[in-house]
Amino acid sequence: QFTFLVVLITGGSKRKSAEIYNPVTRKSCSLPQFSEVRAGHSQDGALTCGGDGGGGEKTCVKWSPVSGTWNQSHTLREARGAHLSWETESGVYLLGGYDTAIRRTSEKVNADGSVEKSFDLKYDTRLSF
């Protein structure tokens, strides 16, 4: 049995880029770009959620190695950027964000494409730049 580990690198300031890096071969391969800029987003496996000001703040997209494309998978309840994510067996939780109205909120992104309000946070939660 082989374990094959690669790193998915996505987005950045004013970037729509994505690539896969293989640490064994030390080579990278460019993937098709996102349709919008993704910076300040979260990346959990093939799932990319939110971002800062590039148009993807309220969406998640998922990489499909079969079709070789990024496909919108979820519409978020809140615009999220500079947030944190927590992947669990039951789904991905998106926590906080740059907007003061959502810094103490979370939502859960489910595998079936649904998104639900989740728990409230005790403290403001966001990535500081």
Beta-strand segment tally: 11
The overall average pLDDT, rounded, is: 92
Helices and strands, in N-to-C order?
A: EEEEEEEEEEE
Read across the widest sheet, the strand sequence of neighbours is 4-5-6-7
Question: How many DSSP helices?
Answer: 0
Largest sheet: 4 strands, antiparallel
Rg over CA atoms: 15 Å
Class computed from helices, strands and strand pairing: mainly beta
Distance between the termini: 42 Å
* Portion in strands: 35-45%
Helix percentage range: under 10%
Shape: globular
Q: Unreliable runs, pLDDT <50, ≥5 residues?
A: none
In short:
The protein is mainly β. The protein is built from no helices and 11 strands.
What does this structure look like?
- The protein has 129 residues and is an all-beta fold.
- A hairpin with a 2-residue loop joins strand 8 and strand 9.
Keywords:
mainly beta, 129 residues, 11 strands, globular
Topology (elements, then pairings):
Blueprint: E1 7-10, E2 18-22, E3 27-30, E4 42-44, E5 47-49, E6 59-64, E7 69-75, E8 84-88, E9 91-95, E10 106-109, E11 115-117
Antiparallel strand pairs: 1-2, 2-3, 4-5, 5-6, 6-7, 8-9, 9-10, 10-11
